Amino acid sequence: MNSTAATQLSFEVPSAAEGRRLDVWLAGQPQAPTRSQIKIAAQTGRLTVDGRAARVSHRLRGGERIILVADPDEPSTDDAGPESIALDVLYEDEFLVAINKAAGMVVHPAAGNRSGTLVNAILGRYPDAALPGSPSRAGIVHRLDRDTSGVILVARTVAAHEALARQFRERTVRKIYWALVQGRVASPQRIDAPIGRHRSDRKRMSVHGTPARNAVTEIRPLESYSLESHLAATLIEARPLTGRTHQIRVHLAASGWPIIGDKVYGATRAAAPIARQALHAVSIEFAHPRSGSRLRVEAPLALDFAELLRVLRERVRGE
What we know:
This protein has six helices and 16 strands. The protein is an alpha+beta fold.
């Protein structure tokens, strides 16, 4: 392995690695990122084999050249430990748990956030979520941004994790979010715009990014309000049909309806009446990994979001 740039790692695959999974082989190389970091790099197009974006399940032939653009701030659960942190449990059984994640809570440990994360909390309350093969991934199946509140699923068995992950890959999981956006959304919309890594800011995503991957979000307006400075706001329901990083935030901002309070993709024309992005994962519907029956879990609105809507609704009634 040799470093070809400040954050770019290059690996030559020996013939002895033929038939091995890309992520398993790569994680065993000196100075390589962890498997969780490798997975995220693949999901965001920063992992290539012979110049082509690759999946972690890619089977090696031997002789390939692997390039991974590493991010020192990328989440890694490999050193996560159990911590006693209060959790708002929405549903639990012996196979899975659904948590109402608070805004401000990071899902995975990373540089600057090595403790106090959802992974630490899960390992503290559910030791069996330290799954064999990757004990500190804590059964996390999907992600929510730090400042997004709402429901998130955690598997408690390997079989449950595999079943839920398969549903996410096959897009049979139905997720619904509420977002308060700047501007007036008059009718339902289908936003179909590929998303990739921003060309000049690696921490951002963009509909003009690269490599672009298909992304679709359906939205419909629920309520409209007036903000200060003669600006309008709309509460919308958003349903992501794909699962790209920052998908809802990027799609709404690119469509002219940035989420209020979003410090990365939001507008700056008016002071935000909320200290974080007004985005909440309201519900998730999926097939139970054991019974196969459809299960829908709902998360009540976070207090700051609910209070903001109360104030806006009172303003509408007073007009």
